[in-house]
Amino acid sequence: MSAAPSEALVELRHGVRRVLLAPHVGGAIAAFDETRDGRVIDWLRPATPAALAARDPLGMASFPLLPYCNRIRDARFMFDGALVDLSDDGNEFAHALHGNAWRLGWRVEEMSASRARLHLLHEPSREAAHHWPFAYEATQDIALDADRLSVTMSARNLADRPMPFGMGHHPYYPRTRNTRVHARVAAMWHSTPDLLPTHAGPHPCIDAMASSDGMSADAFDLDNNFTGWSRTATIAWPDEGRAITLSADAPFDHMVVYAPAAHPGLLCVEPVSNVADWVNLDVARALKGGVVLEPGESVSATFAWTTRIG
User: Fold this and answer.
1) Is residue 1 part of a domain?
2) What Pfam families does the record tag this protein with (predicted)?
3) Please, what's the largest Cα pairwise distance for the chain?
């Protein structure tokens, strides 16, 4: 049985390192930082007081993506011979976006000084405003230690029928003129102007990210999915002598990079298990990701951020 819904921030600490969780704001991480010589070092972009007051998941440091990642074209798809219509579910975007877990309150189920478990129960009949038609439950086990912050995401299909499913997390990193991104990927999903995927193929950013210097966060205008990810990526601030490495287990086999030219303060490098609109893409599963969970079936995977100074 879950505890009562939390309306307060939850603080985890390990030495000089701190994580703030906002369970009531989509089960989000509000901050991940450490204090050295009186100076606060932000590893993720911290939520502002205004974002917290507005309960805005897009203003958090990172938030969970469940039961799918990124967009679904026109908020509709066919599954198991039936139309799944996600329009008018309270999402303000033209295409369904990021699932529903980021817009629901999570419960604090367990907690210690440096660990917490957050729990979400989605029942369609009780969540009419967020009408993903399949019942499911999800947990986030969040642990902070001297080197890294890890998140184990788990989900179980509570419906009496199969459920299409994907998961991920949506972290924002501090972006400066000197921020570099290092990663190895096989291909980038090119997309339409409204960011729906068209085909996977080469792009100059792939070689840039794989180079010894990495890719400047300002080099390209990106909001794209990548496939064939090695499941590790490093965001570095060489002028500050620090870096953070994102690593992930399968099925986080895809990566999203959001580095928009129009918003030079934003940078996301996200571990995800499915590319945008995967439920409508007629391509091999290895290219698009996603799974189908049978009734009662579960999936679980861990990703982590490891930090380095010097």
Assistant:
1) no
2) Aldose_epim
3) 60
**Whether pTM exceeds 0.90:** yes
Q: Tell me the three state secondary structure of residue 210.
A: helix
Q: What's the CA gap between 65 and 106, in Å, rounded? A: 13
**Coil, helix or strand at residue 197:** strand
Classified as helix, coil or strand, 299 is: strand
CATH number at residue 200: 2.70.98.10
Residues 6+ apart with CB under 8 A from 145: 14, 114
Cis peptide before 57 (omega within 30 of 0): no
Which tens digits make up the pLDDT trace of 42-67? 999 999 999 999 999 999 999 999 99
pLDDT per position as a tens digit, 236-294? 999 999 999 999 999 999 999 999 999 999 999 999 999 999 999 999 999 999 999 99
Rounded Cα–Cα distance for residues 98 and 102 (Å): 7
Report the domain count for the chain: 1
- Alpha carbon separation from 249 to 138, 150, 231, 246, 302 (Å, rounded): 17, 11, 7, 11, 6
Measured distance CA(121)–CA(107) in Å, rounded: 9
